[in-house]
């Protein structure tokens, strides 16, 4: 069994970092069933990979591309989506969206006082509607229905 030294491999690959990366990639290839280009001589995969590099029996460009491909990650390119009004809400889907004037409407109106009055009128109408609903619902709900609470009805 011949000993493989780094000096033998550095003649083929001058950069030691590249040497380690390529030898480890080749050792992984051998482990996953790659074809040997030298006799194994009862050596482990990293030693066989270094011997192959030292003897020049490998195509180093193919091995370099294999290292690069193993380090690359697939990145999807996000396509910009069309933005709908109201953060993706379909117009009319949610009640109340679009009822209030937008900044564009304020600019078009020219007078912010008119827009403020419309907003206040909308808020007043909502408050009146809520108060009316509370009055109607409050009178009917003064006495709870025993059946609605799950209690047995008394006869």
Describe it for me?
Among the domains are: about 5-70, RNA polymerase subunit, RPB6/omega (Eukaryotic RPB6 RNA polymerase subunit, Alpha-Beta Complex), CATH 3.90.940.10; about 105-140. The chain has helices spanning about 5-10, 15-30, 45-55, 60-70, 105-110, 110-140. The relative contact order is 0.07. It is built from 6 helices and no strands. Helix 2 (about 15-30) packs across helix 4. The chain is rod-shaped. The protein is mainly alpha-helical and about 160 residues long. The model has no long low-confidence stretch (mean pLDDT about 75).
Rg value: 39 Å
Assign the CATH architecture of the domain at 6-71: Alpha-Beta Complex
Strand content: under 5%
Number of helices: 6
Please identify the oligomeric state: single chain
Provide the CATH topology of the domain at 6-71: Eukaryotic RPB6 RNA polymerase subunit
Unreliable spans are none
Overall geometry comes to: rod-shaped
Q: Helix fraction?
A: 40-55%
Mean pLDDT, nearest integer? 75
List descriptors.
single chain, mainly alpha, 52% helix, rod-shaped
